[in-house]
């Protein structure tokens, strides 16, 4: 009951100076709103990157050609043709826990169809590619192992290619020309959107990797191998087993650098989201400065309030109030002011996040945990910055307080 009575007194004191209370709470309102909006933007960007990583498929392990030292120069992914079809076959045949393998050959090619010219990315892949990428077809069917063995002139096209070269047409069964070689369209991929690097995943043509190597690129090596593990729990072991197998096949002795690079999906996701995590922390830290400023404003106003109400404090002590009662009263005033500012700030932050998402097109994601943290932090600001004025009020000498003009 004493707490409720003290709380009512605190509210009456805040209501007596509405304008001052509002201006004092403004720092907390802006601070909490800024924190929620900025963290929401950072989390939205992180969520978008994670969704793009997930578009790679499930439990994917990527094996890249290159990453070796030669003459003191270190090459990056794809820097040398060190992977072969036989490596991919060995992985599928000898590594337990592997459920899909697709050798990959990449290249940019000029495509002709319907009298139009289009430059796009052409991927040479295996029949397991769509299953590994978890990429369904909107229409048609995937090419078969028989098409791969025969280096058939068949292809699957992305939605962007279909829209650009064959608008409003049923394209299955139609042919297009890649480097003046006719390829029959077997199917159209469902739209995937942007990749992690911001490129259009739907602007692509997929052909059997043997067709890419023999008919388009005229090469004997492959760029990379896409592998799918049976589950996330065996993904790390699959990576280690692949590394051991390729070192053995490529005769890489102890102490020598690998001529390939292996990356798991989780490793790629961690690298891709590292920047967004840093950005989220930075934005949140910058916005938190407003909360500190708001807390200093609360301390300043509460010190002024103690000075203005010195005689009131003396009267309350004279009729039996203890120092802890005075301390609790002013502390509750500070906490109430901070919490009210925090609640309004949450509304402001949520509104700002939605407006930014709608107007600027930025992805935003405000989690319940960030709201709870904002409320607790605003309460902590009230306690921290309100304690000194409250303590000062509780230590006033009642006689001196009554004499105060």
Distance between the termini: 32 Å
> By helix and strand content, what is the structural category?
alpha+beta
Q: Tell me the total number of β-strands.
A: 12
Largest sheet: 6 strands, mixed, barrel
Poorly predicted parts:
68-79
The ordered string of helix (H) and strand (E) elements is HHEEEHEEHEHEHEEEHEHEHHHHH
Number of helices, where a helix is a run of at least 4 consecutive DSSP H or I residues = 13
Query: How much beta, percentage-wise?
Result: 15-25%
The dominant shape is elongated
Secondary structure elements and pairings:
Blueprint: H1 2-16, H2 18-54, E1 60-65, E2 69-70, E3 73-74, H3 85-94, E4 98-113, E5 116-125, H4 129-133, E6 137-140, H5 145-149, E7 154-157, H6 159-165, E8 175-178, E9 181-189, E10 204-208, H7 209-217, E11 224-229, H8 235-249, E12 260-264, H9 265-308, H10 310-318, H11 323-359, H12 368-394, H13 398-403
Parallel strand pairs: 5-10, 7-9
Antiparallel strand pairs: 1-11, 1-12, 2-3, 4-5, 4-8, 4-11, 6-9, 7-10, 8-9
Q: Can you tag this structure with a few keywords?
A:
two-stranded antiparallel sheet; six-stranded mixed β-barrel; elongated; 405 residues; single chain; alpha+beta
Description:
By secondary structure, the protein is of the alpha+beta class. The protein has two domains: 2-52 and 271-403, no CATH class; 83-249, no CATH class. Helix content is 56%, strand content 18%. The chain has helices at residues 2-16, 18-54, 85-94, 129-133, 145-149, 159-165, 209-217, 235-249, 265-308, 310-318, 323-359, 368-394, 398-403; strands spanning 60-65, 69-70, 73-74, 98-113, 116-125, 137-140, 154-157, 175-178, 181-189, 204-208, 224-229, 260-264. The protein has a six-stranded mixed barrel with strand order 4-5-10-7-9-8. A two-stranded antiparallel ribbon has the order 2-3. α9 (265-308) packs parallel to α12 (368-394) and α11 packs antiparallel against α12 (368-394). The chain is elongated and about 105 Å long. The model is unreliable at 68-79 (pLDDT under 50).
């Amino acid at each position: 009951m004493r707490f409720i009575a003290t709380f009512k007194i605190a509210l009456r004191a805040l209501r007596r100076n509405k304008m001052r209370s509002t201006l004092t709470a403004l720092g907390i309102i802006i601070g909490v709103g800024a924190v929620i909006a900025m963290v929401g933007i950072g989390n939205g960007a992180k969520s978008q990157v994670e969704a793009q990583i997930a578009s790679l498929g499930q439990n994917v392990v990527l094996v890249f050609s290159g990453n070796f030292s030669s003459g003191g120069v270190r090459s990056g992914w794809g820097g040398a043709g060190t992977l072969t079809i036989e490596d991919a076959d060995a992985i599928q045949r000898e590594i337990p826990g592997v459920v899909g393998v697709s050798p990959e050959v990449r290249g940019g090619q000029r495509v002709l169809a319907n009298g139009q010219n289009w430059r796009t990315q052409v991927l040479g892949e295996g029949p397991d590619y769509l299953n590994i990428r978890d990429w369904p077809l909107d229409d048609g069917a995937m090419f078969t192992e028989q098409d791969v063995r025969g280096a058939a002139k068949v292809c699957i096209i992305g939605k962007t290619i279909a829209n650009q070269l064959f608008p409003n047409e049923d394209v299955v069964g139609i042919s297009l020309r890649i480097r003046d070689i006719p390829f029959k369209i077997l199917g159209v991929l469902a739209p995937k959107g942007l990749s992690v690097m911001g490129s259009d995943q739907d602007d692509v043509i997929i052909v059997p990797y043997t067709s890419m190597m023999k008919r388009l690129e005229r090469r004997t090596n492959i760029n990379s191998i896409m592998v799918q593990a049976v589950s996330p729990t065996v993904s790390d072991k699959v990576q280690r087993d692949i590394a051991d197998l390729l070192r053995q096949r490529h005769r890489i002795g102890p102490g020598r650098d690998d001529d390939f690079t292996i990356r798991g999906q989780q490793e790629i996701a961690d690298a891709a989201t590292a920047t967004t995590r840093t950005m989220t922390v930075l934005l949140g830290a910058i916005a938190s400065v407003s909360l500190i400023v708001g807390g200093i404003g609360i301390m300043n106003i509460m010190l002024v309030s103690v000075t203005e109400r010195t005689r009131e404090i003396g009267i309350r002590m004279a009729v039996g109030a203890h120092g802890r009662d005075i301390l609790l009263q002013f502390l509750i005033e500070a906490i109430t002011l901070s919490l009210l500012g925090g609640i309004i700030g949450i509304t402001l932050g949520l509104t700002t996040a939605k407006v930014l998402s709608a107007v600027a097109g930025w992805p935003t994601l405000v989690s319940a945990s960030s709201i709870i943290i904002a409320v607790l932090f605003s309460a902590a600001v009230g306690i921290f910055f309100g304690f000194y004025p409250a303590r000062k009020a509780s230590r006033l000498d009642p006689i001196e307080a009554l004499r105060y003009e």
